[in-house]
Amino acid sequence: MNNKEISKEERLEIIREMVEEWENEGTDSIEDTLESAFKIKNNELVELVETAMGFLAELESVKDEIDEIMWGYEEVLDEG
After folding, report:
1. Residues 6+ apart with CB under 8 A from 46
2. Whole-angstrom Cα distance, residue 54 to residue 60?
3. pLDDT digits (tens, 9 = 90+) for 19-66
4. pTM of this structure
């Protein structure tokens, strides 16, 4: 993490932007949340977001496997 200190005003602005984006996008903006958490040095939030990103990556992998199976079924239907 960057050890450069940020001012209270900068910290509040980052938090304001992070919350606004979260209100609009939910956890779809998780990469932006991680970036903001690093900036404000919230280690707990960084850890939670990194964990969530790991779960999302695993979910995407499982979705890809499901898609492959479904494409196989689609081919079976097309052949039938």
Report:
1. 34, 37, 38
2. 10
3. 888 888 876 778 888 888 888 889 999 999 899 989 989 998 999 999
4. 0.61
List the structure tokens of 48: 């939670």
CA-to-CA separations, 2 to 12, 18, 31, 34, 66, in angstroms, rounded = 17, 18, 17, 14, 40
Q: Which two tokens stand for residue 37?
A: 């958490």
Longest distance between any two alpha carbons in the chain, whole Å: 67
Catalogue the E-assigned strands of the chain: none
In this structure, are residues 19 and 36 in contact, taking their beta carbons and an 8 Å threshold? no
Query: Which residues have CB under 8 Å from 13's CB, separation 6+?
Result: none
Of the candidates 45, 38, 36, 41, the residue with the CA atom closest to the CA atom of residue 15: 36
Contact 30, 53 (CB under 8 A): yes
Torsion from C-alpha of 33, 35, 37, 38, nearest 10 degrees:
170
